[in-house]
Design brief:
Blueprint: E1 2-4, E2 7-12, H1 17-27, H2 29-34, H3 48-53, E3 59-63, E4 76-81, E5 85-87, H4 98-110
Antiparallel strand pairs: 1-5, 2-3, 2-4
């Protein structure tokens, strides 16, 4: 749920996660050597136009008061607020997410976690 100023969201579909990772590794090669799990930090963003130029579709939406945003497995997302707001996040998964979770655990372990 969300109250206050709007929040802008950008996202890429989970089916493009592998391609996104490849583009991120190309763009941030030196930084990834310093911080191998950089993709899991909430401080990193890539210009949507750069993603589009690399054939990665980008969707965007604006979340207003009372709106909910649902993200799916392997879908990357980021955003920013247009002013003061208060939001909450809830994580839940249906049984069809189990395979995604197992893949995620394996990938996270490869990143030295």
């Amino acid at each position: 749920n969300h109250v206050g100023a709007a929040k802008q969201w950008y996202g890429i579909p989970g089916v493009k996660a592998t391609k996104f990772n490849a583009v991120m590794e190309k763009l941030m090669k030196l930084r990834l050597k310093e911080v191998p799990d950089l993709e899991h930090h909430i401080t990193t963003q890539i210009d949507p136009q750069v993603l589009l130029n690399n054939k990665i579709p980008v969707v965007k939406t604006t979340q207003g008061a009372g709106h909910f945003i649902v993200t799916f497995p392997q879908a990357y997302h980021c955003g920013f607020s247009y002013g003061f707001n208060c939001g909450e996040a809830v994580n839940f998964a249906t049984t069809d997410w189990i395979d995604h979770g197992a893949s995620s655990v394996h990938a996270y372990r490869l990143k030295f976690k």
